[in-house]
Amino acid sequence: MEQAGAEAGAPRLRAYASGREFPRSEDRLPGHGEASAPEAGRRAPQEAAGGHREPPVPAGPPPRRMPQRHSVRGQVLTALRTALVGGELTPGEVYSAPALAERFGVSATPVREAMQQLAAEGAVEVVPNRGFRVARRTARDLAELAEVRALLEVPVMLELARTVPPEAWEELRPLAAGTVTAAARGDRVGYAEADREFHHALLTLTGNRQLAMIGEELHRRAQGPVTDGAIVRSVDLLADAAEHTALLDALVAGDLPVVEQLVREHFAGARRTR
């Protein structure tokens, strides 16, 4: 029964994961639309006593390219990341796994597993007996993460610039173009994913899987809404995306001083656009 419900829920989860739609409370799939009797019983006394109420979850952002996922947990995780970056989940608010599961039309188990992963990434915090609180990120938090990423990627890029042939850099042109396209649309969620793919591809050229994994984790930690009033403008995204193309030009040319300057400036700009 659990497996059948999960398979039935896969198309809707893929829609949520692509950003076309964020789950609504009235969306229910076979076998998962209603909370189980034990879960309903546990929640009822708190709701009756006027306890914590789930904050509303607004509609999601416009359509984006749909990634392929092979598990319900993976689809939930992607959809939640999309909602966090897009601001559909409010910083400081607490969301319970059963309530989110009902909106997704799945059981609470994959939601809890996805939320635990997000907690490990620093995107949410575990609140015992209540659920998960969306982490508050300030401009200072993002600046510190950008500094750490610069310390990691500047020396790596200089080393790659000395060893990687020009044709390998040319193969990354479509990824750089993807960031420009998302930035031109003002699509912050799409830009975050395109930017992650570009930087992951750069670090993958080192052949060091641990380095690529750490770089991706730092990128994930830098995503999400900023809570101290900072505003991400389309012009900032476009400037950030243009630096990807300029970096590839410098790498193809083997111009190390320009490579170093661009990478440093790129992460200085990340303090504005992440």
Explain what you see.
The chain is mainly alpha-helical and 274 residues long. It has twelve helices and three strands. Residues 1-8, 23-50 and 61-70 have low confidence and may be disordered. The longest helix has 25 residues, at 139-163. A three-stranded antiparallel beta sheet has the order 1-3-2. Helix 3 packs across helix 5 (108-120), helix 4 packs across helix 5 (108-120) and helix 6 packs antiparallel against helix 10.
In short:
It is built from 12 helices and 3 strands; from the N terminus they run αααβααββααααααα.
Keywords:
about 5% strand; disordered N terminus; 3 strands; about 270 residues; mainly alpha
Helix content: 55-70%
The stretches of 5 or more residues where confidence is low (pLDDT under 50) are 1-8, 23-50, 61-70
Query: For the largest beta sheet, what order do the strands appear in spatially?
Result: 1-3-2
Biggest sheet features: 3 strands, antiparallel
**Strand residue percentage:** under 5%
| Count of DSSP strands | 3
Question: Structural class, from secondary structure content?
Answer: mainly alpha
**SS field, number of helical segments:** 12
Cα distance spanning the termini: 41 Å
Task: Tell me the overall shape.
Answer: elongated
- H-E order: HHHEHHEEHHHHHHH
As a whole number of angstroms, the C-alpha radius of gyration is: 20 Å
On the 0 to 100 scale, the average pLDDT is 78
SSE topology sketch:
Layout: H1 2-17, H2 37-48, H3 72-86, E1 94-95, H4 97-104, H5 108-120, E2 124-127, E3 131-134, H6 139-163, H7 166-170, H8 173-185, H9 188-204, H10 209-221, H11 234-253, H12 256-273
Antiparallel strand pairs: 1-3, 2-3
Helix pairs in contact: 1-3, 3-5, 4-5, 6-10, 6-12, 8-9, 8-11, 9-10, 9-11, 11-12
